[in-house]
Amino acid sequence: MKRNQLVQQVKTELADRLADVVERNAKRVYLTVEPEHSLAVNRYLFEHGGRLATATGVDCRDWIEVCYHYCFDPLNVVITVKAKAYKPACELDSVATLFPGANFIEREIQDLLGARFLNHPDPRRLLLADDWPEGVYPLRKDYHHEAHVNTGRAVSPDHGRARVLSALRRG
To answer: DSSP characters for the chain?
Structure first.
């Protein structure tokens, strides 16, 4: 199968599940999906030879955009599924049920951006401390560091850099 055939097949077979398709160039294709179609589109790409390379998240004000990046190595193409998780719930079906390797990636996105992955096998926090405030996500556009110090102690403006440099000078 050639790259053009794959893209045409994806457009045809997933037409009712795709909100948008953008072919940026010969090697990059972006599929935008609503939350209810995310799992089905991800499953389709996997079953048709895609290798989930990674996933990323972006705060887009009204939703969290979770991007699943699939490599089709023999065709030298990357197809990205851009799934919208609308605020305030920010819910998407987890792909960790299909790809165990997505477990940590989805947990990172959950901790840092607040997307909730339904049916995730291990929804515990991964990066944030246990005493981190609920509902506060450090990579969201509305996050303010000064208002959410989770240790109970003041954070110096240089984040302790002066103390570390002083200790290094003393030897």
So the answer is: --HHHHHHHHHHHTGGG-SEEEEEETTEEEEEE-GGGHHHHHHHHHHTT-EEEEEEEEE-SSEEEEEEEEEEGGGTEEEEEEEEEETTT-EEE-STTT-TTHHHHHHHHHHHH--EEET-S--S-SSS-TTSPTT--TTSTT--GGG--SSSS---TTTTHHHHHHHHHH-
The pTM of this model reads 0.83
Q: In the chain, where are the structural domains located?
A: 3-170
Kindly give the confidence (pLDDT) of every residue in the chain, 171 residues in length, as a single tens digit, with 9 standing for 90 and above.
Answer: 788 899 999 999 999 999 999 999 989 999 999 999 999 999 999 999 999 999 999 999 899 999 999 999 999 999 999 999 999 999 999 999 999 999 999 999 999 999 999 999 999 999 998 888 999 999 999 887 765 555 554 445 555 556 556 666 775
Q: Which CATH class is domain 3-170?
A: alpha beta
